[in-house]
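agent: user wants the full assembly modeled, not chains individually. Plan: 1) parse entity lines 2) check alphabet per entity 3) run joint structure prediction 4) return tokens. Steps 1-2 passed, two entities, 342 residues total. Proceeding.
--- entities ---
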Amino acid sequence: MTVIVRIISILLGVIVISKVYLDYKKRNIGLTVFLFWMIAWFGIIVISLYPIMIDRINRAIGEDSTGLTAFFAISFVFIFFVVYRVYTKANRLEKMISDIVIKLGIRDLDDKK
Amino acid sequence: MKLAIVIPAFNEAGMIDKVIASLPRKLPKINEIISIVVDDGSSDDTYRVASRRADYVVRNIINMGVGLATRLGIEAAKKLDADIVLTMDADGQHSGADIKNLIAPIVTKKADITLGTRMLNSKGMPFVKVFGNWMMNLLTFLLFHIRVTDSQSGMKAFSKEAINKIRIDAISYEVCSEIIGEVRHHKLKFQEVPIKTIYTEYSKVKGQDIFNAANIFTRLISLKIGKRR
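--- prediction returned ---
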């Protein structure tokens, strides 16, 4: 089971990294966003290959709880944060596009009147 | 009184002329009738064909969806100082003969919004559409607490007061339920009026797909949560 989870994580990681790289190359995203996602997904791949690392880091900072549990909890919060940001941005963009389309349509009418 | 008939159309070059031609030229207590076709970024000849017969044709530069096209049509009607706005589909499923009944309660000030209902006489409507409609009526009731028999009907009429009050945020088919939500929010007077549905092979293909229900469902929930008052 662990092997399957690792393979899936690496596969997803590779797909996302290549997509992020292409988006950066096509200038669809800026350098900050590119670096952020590259580091995040490299981190995910490393952790899925060596999950023991989390426990080592945990011990090093003097935490008692299982590192992996804390990691998943933080990941969960982070994912929800990203989903929220994407949702609000998409909504805002949709509203902006709608307003532009309506304004252009009405301008068309003004020209014809 | 001035009546604006708004017809949102997407790739309806083959039908739009017939639909505009079927509109009434005279109606009781109405001095002027204007037709406004909203071409929702069609890739066919809809704009050109509609321009030959309609009084006004406005265009969405890209295909956005029937919700935004309806909003644009209503905005255009406002700009043209219409007293009553009526929306109807461009696929030929609505009959111009029903317009008189739909606007009558608005003319007599008995209603601010009327909704043409196909369900009081659903003969000829495919079963999947009857079922889909029933599901959407239930969802509309759960979200907006108004019981209607045909929440997804595209044939509606609005008074001037109603179009100045309601706010449409929907982009796509969820617009029908959103308008019903607006009726409740603004405490508008509302009536259902039975209409005839002309089900041809063409209109059956052009209508909303049952598989679109999941899409409408998620968009309605999102709309309900995201609507800022």
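agent: reporting back. The domain at 2-226 of chain B is CATH 3.90.550.10 (Spore Coat Polysaccharide Biosynthesis Protein SpsA; Chain A). The longest strand of chain B covers residues 32-40.
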